[in-house]
Each structure stands twice: as C-alpha cells, then as structure tokens.
Amino acid sequence: MHSFLYRANALLTFSITILALMCAMASVSDNFNSPSPTSEVQVLNINWFQKKPDGDDEVSLTLNISANLQSLFTWNTKQVFVFLAAEYKTPKNALNQVSLWDGIIPSKEHAKFGIHITNKYRFIDQGSNLRGKDFNLTLHWHVMPKTGKMFADKIVMSGYRLPKAYR
Amino acid sequence: MQPVGVTLTTMMDWQGQKLAEHLMQLMLVCFAVVAFIAGYVLGSFQTMFLIYTAGVVLTSLVTVPNWPFFNRHPLKWLDPSEAEKHPKPQPANSGPKKKASKK
C-alpha cells in the first residue's frame, strides 16, 4: 500500500473479485424461487388443411394462447423466451416438434398475456401423416438470467385431433 | 502544517498504509453486503449494482489519495545538526557493522 497506483490497483482487483462473488450469489439465489407458471391454449379454427405440391401436409390454425409466467421472474431475470410447439409421433420419428409461435417476454409486467393469432410459423409435417393425427401443444420456455445459468422448462397441454380429410 | 498540494504528494506513513488497506477491505465488503441485501429485498439487480459502484467510488476517494489523515505518525529522523552536537552518534559509521554482525 506504499503508493497511489499500488493502492488503486489493489482496490480495483479486490472490488472486481467481490463483484464476481455477488453475481455468483445472485445466480445461486435463483434456486430459492419455485415457479408455478400456468398456461392454456385453445385451437379455435382450422383455417385450411392441405397437401403441398411436394407431398408434405400443411395446416393453418387459429390459436388462443393465454399464460401467466410471472412467477418465472426473479430479481436476476433478464428475459424469458417462450415458444409453443405442436408435438406428435409419426412412424418415421418418435418425436416431431413444430414451433407454431414464439415470443420474448422482457419483463414481469408482460408475463401475463392472452393472444389470439394464426400460427406464426408454418405447421408442415415431414411427410403426409397429419390427417386424423393427435398432437400435444407444449409451451416451452427458457429463462435468461442477468448472471449465471440459463434454465428451461415446459408445460404439456391437452392436445387436439386434426380432421381426417383435407379442407 | 504543510500546504495541501505538498501533503498529497508525500507518501503515507507505515500506520497510514495499514489503515488504508484495512479501511479499503472493510468498506468494500460492507458496501457489497448492503448492496446485495438491498438488491435482493427490492428485487432489483440494478439497485445492487448502483449501490456497490457508489461504494467503490467512495472507497477509492477515501483510500487511494495520500490524505494527510494517513500521515499522522511520521518517522522522526534525527536532525543533522543534532547529530553534530553529540559525539556518541558519531561511531554510527561502525554501527551498521555491529548490527550486521549481531544478525
């Protein structure tokens, strides 16, 4: 501690070490939060359902998505990425996941929402398996913290059965 | 008392250096604890960061410059004229040799 620059150096290194420790503690504190998010999705309408010229099935849906993800937010949460996937099984693939809608929730105030949309991304099967197919609607989310580990979870919701014929 | 400009350029004494280091560590840890608790309770990461940044700035203002506060126990060197008056310090030329031999 014998000179001005020596003291400035010691203060800088010590203060940054403590800051790193505080960030680590903030990340650990996220584990004390036990979230209880809820969500509900209704398929209101099949807008159209057809086979594309290349043979793959495509369907257009009107959806009503409502969710309350406010409990995911803690003081260390920067944003939450959320997406809705249709999940179903075909002879070729044990699990197909087709993203129908996604969004970025920037704050707790925006985490309780209800929206009425047609699917944002095209619902196309890898093949022609969608007629009469049951699928689950699953809401996935990734919580992005300000510091520390990112974590993800999902809610599997009751599914929907597509009609047996194109329309 | 010396003018401020001179005192700020002079170095700290030994006890001042010790005090400055202890004060720096104590202040930073205290500000970190307060900032973390305030941020956690208020649910605001930004509050934590701002309180801690303010603490770091304040700590650097207190402990980094050579404040006269840290120079209260200056080393008292023997005045050269004093040395001339007394013959005993004169064999001080051989003094270091004696000390070296003792060690």
UniProtKB/TrEMBL annotation, chain A:
GO terms for biological process: protein targeting to ER; signal peptide processing. Keywords: Endoplasmic reticulum, Membrane, Signal, Signal-anchor, Transmembrane, Transmembrane helix. GO terms for cellular component: signal peptidase complex. It holds the Pfam family SPC22. It is a single-pass type II membrane protein. Essential component of the signal peptidase complex (SPC) which catalyzes the cleavage of N-terminal signal sequences from nascent proteins as they are translocated into the lumen of the endoplasmic reticulum. Essential for the SPC catalytic activity, possibly by stabilizing and positioning the active center of the complex close to the lumenal surface. This is Signal peptidase complex subunit 3. It comes from Buddleja alternifolia.
TrEMBL record, chain B:
It is found in: Endoplasmic reticulum membrane. Residues 80-103 are annotated as: Disordered. InterPro entries: Spc1/SPCS1 (IPR009542). The keyword Nuclease does not apply. The keyword RNA-binding does not apply. GO terms for biological process: protein targeting to ER; signal peptide processing. One of its GO terms (cellular component) is signal peptidase complex. It is a multi-pass membrane protein. The chain crosses the membrane at residues 22-42, 49-70. Belongs to the SPCS1 family. Component of the signal peptidase complex (SPC) which catalyzes the cleavage of N-terminal signal sequences from nascent proteins as they are translocated into the lumen of the endoplasmic reticulum. Dispensable for SPC enzymatic activity. This is Signal peptidase complex subunit 1.
